[in-house]
Amino acid sequence: MRKIITLIIFLSVYSGFAQTEEIDSLSIQLAYENQDSLKVDTSLKLIKSLYELNDYDKAIKYIILSEKLSTDLNYHKGIAEVAYYKALIYAQKNDYINAVSGYEKSKALFRQLNDALGVAKVNNSIGLLEIKRGNYAKGLQYSLSAIEELEKRNFTYELKLSYSNLAKAYYNINAFDKAIEYYLKALEIQEQLNDTVGINESNNYLAELYSIKKEHRKAIEYYEKVLTSVGTDNDSIRGSVFPKLGGEYLKFNDYEQATKYLIQGYNINVRSKDKSSLLTVLNNLGDLNLQQRRLILAEKQLLEAGAIAKDLNNKNELLRHYKLMKALDSTKRRFDRAFIWQREYFKLKNELSKNSINVDLSSSETTKLELDPNFDKEVLIPNDTKTDTTNSITVTENQQKFDRLKLIFYALLAALAIVSTFLIMIYLKRNSSIKYTQELEEKNIKIQLQNEAFQEQTKHLENVNNVKDKLFSIVSHDLKDSLSSINGFIDLLKDGSLSREEFDNLIPELSENANSASLLLFNLLNWSKSQMHSLEPKPSLFDVQEVFEDKVKLIEQRMENKGITLVDRSLRDFAYADRSMFEIVIQNLLANALKFSNSGDTITISNHISNGSCIISIADTGVGISRQNIEKLFKSNTFTTMGTNNEKGTGLGLSICKELIELNNGKIWVESTQNVGSTFYVQLPKSKPSA
C-alpha cells in the first residue's frame, strides 16, 4: 500500500513538473515571438495549459492581453478562441450568465469563420454546463449537436466528457436505454485513456441501469468489474457496491452469495458509518432473512432500515421498507399492522409518481431531440472550397434565376388552386356521406336503447319474482321450524306434560329458537327493504364504542351458555354514518362470530383510529371459512352453513351488511383461515364525504 501511494505522489509531481516545463517553454517562446498573430496563437496555447492546470487567475491575465492584441489586429480566430477560454473559466467559477454570454459570442465568431470544429466545441461546453445545472433537455440538445464533429475529429478527451455527461443526463430523465448506450461509449474511451476513476464510475452506473431494467446478470457482471478494479483497499467503493451486489444475487435466490456480499457490506458500512449504503444493506438483509423465515432478525433489520431512511429522507428505500414490512407482518399474521404498512406504501408511491411527471415530460422532449440532429447547426462552407467565382456572377445570371423562380411560383400557385378545388369537392361529398351515416347510427342507437330498456325491465321483473320466491322459501322452512318448536313447547306447558326438571332443561333450546326467529325476522325485514330499494341512510356522527357496548349486552347470555370468551379492545372513536344501519351490521357480525365458535373460543372486538376513516374489526378463533366459501360471501344469492351447535341462518346477513355499509360510503371485507378463525373488517368515513 505504501509503495502504491509513493508511486502516485511521484507521478503527480512528475506530471506537474512536466506541465510547468511546458508553460515555461511557451512563456519564453511568447517573449521572443515577432509576428503579432503568432503571439496570439502562442498565448492561446499558454492559456490552454494554465486552464488544464486549474491556474485560472494566471490564465485570465494572458486572456486579457490576448484579447486586446487580437482586437487591435482584427484577428477573428484569436478573438473567438479567447472568448471561448474566458467562458470556460467563468463556467468553472460557476458564473453561469458570463459563461453563457462568452460561449454565444465565441460561437458567433466561429460561425463567421466557418469553423465547424469551433462551433462543436462551444456547443459541447454549453451542453456540459446545462447538464451540470440540471437542465438535462437543454443540455442534451447542445451536446448531441456537437457529437458528430467531435467523433469525426476523434477528440477523445472532449468525447469522453461529452459521452459521460450525455449518459448522466439520459439517466436523470429515465431514458435508460440511451444512458446505457452512452456509458458504453464513454467506457470504451476511458479504457483507451486508462482513466481508472472514469472506468469505475461508468461500470457502477451501468450496473445500476441494468438492475433497473431487471437484467440482473449484467448488473452483477459490472458490479464485479468495479470490485476487481478497486481491489481490497478501497472501502468507500466496496462499501457502496457490496450491498447492491448482494441484492442482485438475492433476485436469483442465490442466498449463499447474497449473504456473503451483504455481510461484508454491513461490516464495512458500520465501520465507516456510511448511513446511505448501510440503509441499502439493511433492507436487503431484511429481505434475505424474510425469505429464509428468520422473522425476528428480519424485523430488527427492517426497523433499523426504516429509521435511517426517514433520517436521510431516502424515499425510494423507504418505499421498499414499507413493502417488506407489509410482507413481514402478513407472514406473522399481524394483519392489522400489515394493513397500515400497505396504506403507507401506496401513499408514498403516489407521491413519488406525482414527482416523476416532470421527468417524464423531459424524457419525451429528449426523444424529439434525437430526431433533430441539425439542432443549432448552420451550413458551414470550408475555407479551402471558397473561390472568387461568387464575385463573377453577372446580373444576367441573377435575372435568369429570378425569372425561373417566378415561373415556378406561378406554376405552384396554379397547381395549388386546382388541388384546393378538388379538396373542397371531396370535403362536401364526404360531409354528405357522414351526415347520412350519422342519421343511420342515431336510429341504431335508439333501437339499441329500447332493447336495453326492455331487457332491464325484464331483469327487474325477474329480480322481484326471485325476491318473492326467496321470502316464501325462508318463511316456509327456517322461520316455520323455529316457530313450530316454540309452539310445541307452549303446547307441552298447557297440557302439563313437562316436569320442573324437564322445563329447566328445555329453556336454553327455547331461548335459542326464539333468538334465531328474532334474528331471522330482523334480517328478513331489512333484506326485503333493501331489495325494494326503500333503504335511505340518515348519517350522523356517533361513538362506535357505545354501539359495541349495546350490542354485546344482547349476546352476553348466549356467549356464556356456549362457553365463549369476549375480549373488548374497542376505543372511543367516531364514524359518520346511519347509526341504526351500523347497529344492524354489528349485530349480524357478532351473531356470526358466536354461531361459528366452539366452547373455549374467543371473540375480539376492536377499532383502529385513523385520520381519514374509522376501521372496526370483529375477530373469532372459531372454525374459519374455506377459500371457496369466502368467494360466496357478500353475494346477492343466499349462502349459509350450520353453526357449531347446528344453528341455522338465512344466508342473508352478510348480504345486508354489505348493502348497508356501501350505502354509507364504507367498505366491508373478511380475512379467514380454516380451523384458525375469521376477522371481519368494516371501514366508515369520519366526516361527510365531499361530492
UniProtKB/TrEMBL annotation:
Single GO MF annotation: kinase activity
Alphabetized InterPro entries for the sequence: BphY/WalK/GraS-like, HATPase_C_sf, HATPase_dom, His_kinase_dom, HisK_dim/P_dom, HisK_dim/P_sf, Sig_transdc_His_kin-like_C, TPR-like_helical_dom_sf
Annotated catalysed reactions: ATP + protein L-histidine = ADP + protein N-phospho-L-histidine
Domain Histidine kinase: 474-688
Domain of life the protein comes from: Bacteria
This enzyme's EC code(s): 2.7.13.3
UniProt organism field: Jejuia spongiicola
Residue stretches spanning the membrane: 407-428
Keyword list, A-Z: ATP-binding, Kinase, Membrane, Nucleotide-binding, Phosphoprotein, TPR repeat, Transferase, Transmembrane, Transmembrane helix, Two-component regulatory system
Name of the protein described by the UniProt record: histidine kinase
TPR repeat coordinates: 160-193
Pfam families named in the record: HATPase_c (PF02518), TPR_12 (PF13424)
